[in-house]
Predict the 3D structure of the following.
Amino acid sequence: MKTMKSIWNKSASVLATAGVWLGTGSLGLAATVNDLPGGPSVLQLNLPPAVTAIAREQQWLHWFMLILCTVIFVAVFAVMFYSIWKHRKSRGHKPATFHESVTVEIVWTVIPFIIVILMALPATKVVVAMKDTSNADVTIKATGMQWKWGYDYIKGEGEGIGFVSTLDGEQREMSNNGGPKKGEVVDDYLFKVDNALVVPVDKKIRIITTANDVIHAFAVPAFGIKQDAIPGFVRDTWFRAEKIGDYHGQCQELCGKEHAYMPIHVKVVSAEDYSKWVEGEKKKMAALADDPSKVWTLAEITQRGEKVYAQNCVACHQTSGKGGGAIKALDGAAVVLDADKAKQIKVLLNGQNNGTMPAWKSLSNTDIAAVISYTKNHWSNQTGQLVQPAEVAALRK
Amino acid sequence: MSAVLDHHDHAHDDHHDHAPTGWRRWVYATNHKDIGTLYLLFSFTMFIIGGILAMLIRAELFQPGLQLVNPELFNSLTTMHGLIMVFGAIMPGFVGFANWMIPLQIGAADMAFARMNNFSFWLLIPAGLMLVGSFWMPGGAPAAGWTLYAPLTLQQGPSMDAGIFAMHILGASSIMGSINIIVTILNMRAPGMTLMKMPMFAWTWLITAYLLIAVMPVLAGAITMTLTDRHFGTTFFNPAGGGDPVLYQHIFWFFGHPEVYIMILPAFGIISQIVPAFARKRLFGYTSMVYATSSIAILSFIVWAHHMFTTGMPVTGQLFFMYATMLIAVPTAVKVFNWIATMWQGSMTFETPMLFAVGFIFVFTMGGFTGLILAMAPIDIQLQDTYYVVAHFHYVLVAGSLYAMFAGYYYWAPKWTGVMYNETRGKIHFWWSLIAFNVTFFPMHFLGLAGMPRRYADYPMQFADFNALASVGGFAFGLAQVYFFFFVVLPAMLGHGEKAPQRPWEGAEGLEWEVPSPAPFHTFETPPKLNAAANKILA
């Protein structure tokens, strides 16, 4: 079976390459790109290489089904094409008059029934294994948000670590500008994130999914997992990655306009590297923990605000602050210029226009204060107003 | 009751002595043939609009990066392409075939409720205008996918309300159409036309009509709940108030899965008429075809959650829906075997209707097999919401429903228009469509296996080659349909072409071939006397 697979893969690859070359390559449209290890390959024809036992089972099932279906398909249509060839009027074939046979009908009802049962048996075993999320070594909550992933390590080594993972801003910009330019090689286009999810190799990782706004789906093809992240509900899935490396997935449930721009990057590391990473993260968190009562200066806080803006706001409101379409402009906006700072704070905390502007409750008081101060003192908005974290805290219910 | 009917019949006779002309003929139409024509024209118009949206989608996806549209508009394009094709093109298209052919096939003078028939057609117009017009509403057209999953729908602009209203109207129209079809078939068959002698197309539509009546109200319920969530403070699907977004999916797919059979059963019916006609041999296993169609319809009610394997169902739920779904393969296989057995030892010719019918069986079966693969829950976890699913449902809806409608058009249009189509043009249309279709959708299987999610405005570079190929195929497929309109449909509408004989197909049987071509405005005003097989009129 293995050699057969590789022969099929190779010959299919050659055929596909030739076909695509004819279709597009000759027009000079194909941009240069290499396979992305742990992500998709160029002209990939089948499921990605399996890194977990479940993914391996899925692959086996898929081959099993593909071969079985192909054999049946060829057998059935061989009969049809034979008939088309032999029993045509132009060859002088006279029509027979038979039109009924209970025996034949029973035979070709029972045989497919048996085949279907044969197909269902091996699948049952895998379904049961897939759903067994008990005895996890590390439990991580993945929260889908429009449009990024929040990861919280809630049990096992690394407990307490939490961060948000967003698509690289440059790549998002690149997409707006028509994708990578000719000659530009971006193998991880739309896969690059600021903070990858880090997990140890050979450990059972349970992913609990939920969402803040609409339904998203957490999916990593190499692990064979896909689980919808549903607001107000928790669901779970699990994987045990067998190989160190980087693995890539994308949100797989339509979640609004930036649906294509919330990738998932899982970094599988050795147990030692994982411990080191956890230690480093904990230190960083301690250092970063903001003193909520700290009083900031304007220069300090707008500098912080610029970063928050770049991470969270720029996708919609643009670098220019002009927005576009349904997205309101911030530059010169009444609510930003208003002397009553509470108005803008409330918009950030609660969202606006039915979630077209989402609620940003998940950001810290300091981040919200910083980004408001930034917008109040950037572009043509030179209000000189400064929002302190305490003011946000006061309005947060 | 019969006295009243008799009275009405007389009134009608008097009225129709002055054949309606001009716009009145269409606006006040009560004749099943005219209404059938209106349905078919509406369906084709929506097919072209939905097709233009598809061309825009393929143009945007031709290369990575955003070139033509922004992501919000892209989502509107995919959403409206789906809604318009399903509710505007395919469903009314089959109702058009039903209106034209069912009274002719069962020897009835007209549909049972002629005025309701008029109403159910004219309801489509405001609904269609609202769907298409939503692109110009503030915030753009609905962009939550044709499945309209909550809570994304709760974030949408006012066009979502227009969309919901349009669906309500379309649903009302479908229900009226179905009632009409059921009553016509059950009460108005010519003497001697027993149920088990009825042509397969009438049978499949009878079953489809029951499916429609059962599930359209379910869809109406789901979208009404969305509407009240949006405006009246209810929280059916809004978790912030204790609602459940997954509940929406259960309700939607309880409608949605029977819906896919609503779109394919009449296609089975058309194919079951055409294959025997061109094999010059009776349909093999008529009785088992009726039973197979019925069991597909019944099974379609207990498989809905196979669309939801990734929502996180319990093990038992996944297993039940996996087994039930795979079971549907059995009656579907029986139908394919019966068609092939009908061809076996026949005396076949391959005019365009037969080409599309054989193309249907071949390509639709591929869609059936990918359906079986998707039914396996563990594989579905990988393929759910990827391009594999997109490939699968286009194999069953384009190569299935659409090809069957093309087949039905070439088969019956001589009866409708009185002129034959040009055989060479029909063959060009068939081969061009078949090749372009496969170039478009076959690579999508690979994209899906490689993990490319559907409804993505932009995609990683590794997916670029197959997307470019699919786009090239897509444009070619679109162009083939433009060819079909200008070189096949338009000449027929203008009456150009060879005059069609009463029975243009040597092997065609059934009452529709017992009346002249084009079919006169009124047919079977007095019930015809039928032979024992109920497929010929005794003089």
